[in-house]
């Protein structure tokens, strides 16, 4: 019993020693509870201040090139109609379009329309010319690429009528603005609706009424020509004036080229403006009147006629050059 008591006492003391050792043992953190961390935000702030948000918007796409709708484009005389549409399923929005046209001689393009429409009518084109047209779309980001270029070939033969806005108020126009009747005893000027700047053009005027041996004048003029004087009296007109027996050429009130042969009711006066050769010639009933009337001409010119109340004329355009002229050229 004594031995067991000693053994138990020894075990108790040893257990007590181990317990004291574990109780004294603790875990110490290798780092402190408070993190020693400092953030440097200065570089980030500088980057934010340097941002250009207008440039950031430029990352959005510009519109795609529009598609010219050739089946809807048309050309009649000196007037062209151009149509286009945006690219299908294009990701970028379209706010408008820019239509450009060259000068018909291969020169630089110029802007002729800006807006949201997809169809544009262009008038005032020169005859006997080949124009180039193109269009591009734009939005807030900028303008996109150009469409394909379309060629516009105007007619070699000019079609026109008299211009109500450029004609003296004493002259009445009828028959689709091709017949001119004057209500004044004094000479009054009538201008055509379309200027001619290129090519070779021939037109005729038939004499519907001719009374009292007046002398109407036929030819071309600048837009600045006097409306209340005979064509050719000033520096802006080149003409042939004719009575029932003979004719004269006149420019800047200088009279030249007297030739026999006059007009009457039913006669036809032809005007040939050759802007390739820069010349002007006249015909009566398909026969050339004298020699070439004027040389060294440079357009644009408006076909013109001056008349008084004793004369009525009707204009005929879109005519081919007389065969007699073609034979001379051969």
UniProtKB/TrEMBL annotation:
Residues 62-157 form the Fibronectin type-III domain. Residues 1-54 form the COS domain. Pfam families: fn3, SPRY. SMART domains: FN3, SPRY. It comes from the Eukaryota. InterPro entries: B30.2/SPRY (IPR001870), B30.2/SPRY_sf (IPR043136), ConA-like_dom_sf (IPR013320), COS_domain (IPR017903), E3_ligase_FN3/SPRY (IPR050617), FN3_dom (IPR003961), FN3_sf (IPR036116), Ig-like_fold (IPR013783). Residues 139-324 form the B30.2/SPRY domain. The keyword Coiled coil applies. Keywords: Coiled coil. This is Tripartite motif containing 9. The keyword Transport does not apply. One of its GO terms (cellular component) is cytoplasm. Transmembrane segments: none annotated.
């Amino acid at each position: 019993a004594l031995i067991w008591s000693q053994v138990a006492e020894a075990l108790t003391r040893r257990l007590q020693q181990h317990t004291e050792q574990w109780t004294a043992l603790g875990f110490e953190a290798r780092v402190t509870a408070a993190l020693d961390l400092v953030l440097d935000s200065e570089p980030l702030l500088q980057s934010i201040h340097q941002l250009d948000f207008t440039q950031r918007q430029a990352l959005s796409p510009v519109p795609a090139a529009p598609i010219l709708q050739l089946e809807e484009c048309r050309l009649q005389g000196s007037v062209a109609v151009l149509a286009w549409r945006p690219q299908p399923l294009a990701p970028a929005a379209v706010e408008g379009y820019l239509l450009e046209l060259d000068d018909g001689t291969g020169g630089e393009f110029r802007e002729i329309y800006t807006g949201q429409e997809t169809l544009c009518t262009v008038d005032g084109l020169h005859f006997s010319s080949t124009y180039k047209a193109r269009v591009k779309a734009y939005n807030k980001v900028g303008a996109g690429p150009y469409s394909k270029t379309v060629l516009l070939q105007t007619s070699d033969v000019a079609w026109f009528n008299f211009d109500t806005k450029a004609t003296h108020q004493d002259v009445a126009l009828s028959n689709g603005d091709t017949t001119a009747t004057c209500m004044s005893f004094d000479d009054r000027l009538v201008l055509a609706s379309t200027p001619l700047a290129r090519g070779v053009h021939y037109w005729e005027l038939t004499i519907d009424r001719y009374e009292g041996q007046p002398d109407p004048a036929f030819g071309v003029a600048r837009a600045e020509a006097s409306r209340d004087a005979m064509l050719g009296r000033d520096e802006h007109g080149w003409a042939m004036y004719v009575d029932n027996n003979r004719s004269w050429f006149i420019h800047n009130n200088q009279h030249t080229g007297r030739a026999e042969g006059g007009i009457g009711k039913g006669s036809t006066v032809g005007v040939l403006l050759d802007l390739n050769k820069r010349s002007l010639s006249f015909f009566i009933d398909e026969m050339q009147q004298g020699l070439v009337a004027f040389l060294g001409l440079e357009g644009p010119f408006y076909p013109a006629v001056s008349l008084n109340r004793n004369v009525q004329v009707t204009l005929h355009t879109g005519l081919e050059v007389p065969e007699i002229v073609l034979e001379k050229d051969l």
